[in-house]
């Protein structure tokens, strides 16, 4: 089995035009997640108007909801294609937010101590393929936070997942502008990592079909390990919440 089938940037560049179709109702997800994150940020003492960095923004599932809620959102992602799609979504919706390409492992575009909150949601962190890479990302998030600021990550709970090979996970059938669209994930385990393929099939009204196969790789890092890595990066009060988003959420604070 080949390692590093494609970079995360290449994978999400190709996925960006279709990403919303992975959801049955992407706008509904934006609203639900925006509301949940607004409540969580408020509980953490971060109010609307304060600066928030969405450091793995993708096409904006969290960015858009938070910007609509009044947060001063800066969004970054390693995928140029995802950032361009987000810019276009923001322009179409008339929502103000900065969107730019940056790597979660360095966050070189974001000034130190400039953010009240930093987030990376929907299992973005496990795209980093070693503890060292994750540690670099957590240290970068810590650097960007003001004293007392909070970091929020949502991740899969790999410890509870059965490991079968191949693990085939279909999304639902989608219909858009007369096109039919079907996406299927296939996971293939390789130690504590797995290769993920998404098979994307699109059928036009005249019956013409295209299928693309996009490949990426994940490190199935357990949540307990992430909590340790957060503390090693300097964070305090790191904990897990299970009832905020559709994945467990990890919260940690920069010291005051
Ligand atoms: C599953 S998507 C989630 C995107 C967005 N948070 C959402 O929920 O729609 C994971 C995102 O992590 C980004 N990502 C992966 N590695 C990254 C890195 N090193 N730096 C910044 N973003 C990265 C990908 O480009 C992708 O947009």
Describe the structure.
The protein is of the alpha/beta class and 256 residues long. It folds into 2 domains: 8-158 and 221-253, Rossmann fold (3-Layer(aba) Sandwich); 160-218, N-terminal domain of TfIIb (Single Sheet), CATH 2.20.25. It is built from 6 helices and 12 strands. The strands form 2 sheets. A 7-stranded mixed β-sheet has the order 3-2-1-4-5-12-11, sandwiched between helices. Strands 6, 7, 8, 9 and 10 form a 5-stranded antiparallel β-sheet that branches. Strand 11 and strand 12 form a beta hairpin. The mean pLDDT is 96.
Characteristic key phrases:
binds S-adenosylmethionine; 5-stranded antiparallel β-sheet; 2 domains; alpha/beta; Rossmann fold; 256 residues; 7-stranded mixed β-sheet; N-terminal domain of TfIIb
CATH secondary-structure class of the largest domain? Alpha Beta
**Distinct ligands:** S-adenosylmethionine
For this structure, the CATH topology of the largest domain is Rossmann fold
Strand content: 25-35%
The helix fraction, in percent, is 25-40%
How do the strands line up in the largest sheet? 3-2-1-4-5-12-11
Q: Shape, please?
A: globular
CATH architecture of the largest domain: 3-Layer(aba) Sandwich
| Class computed from helices, strands and strand pairing | alpha/beta
Cα gyration radius (Å): 18 Å
**Please, what is the average pLDDT?**
96
Question: What would you give as the CATH superfamily of the largest domain?
Answer: Vaccinia Virus protein VP39
List segments where confidence is low: pLDDT < 50 over at least 5 consecutive residues.
none
Number of domains: 2
Give the distance, in angstroms, between the N- and C-terminal Cα atoms: 46 Å
Give the SSE order as H and E letters.
HHEHEHEEHEEEEEEHEE
Number of strands: 12
The biggest beta sheet, please? Answer: 7 strands, mixed
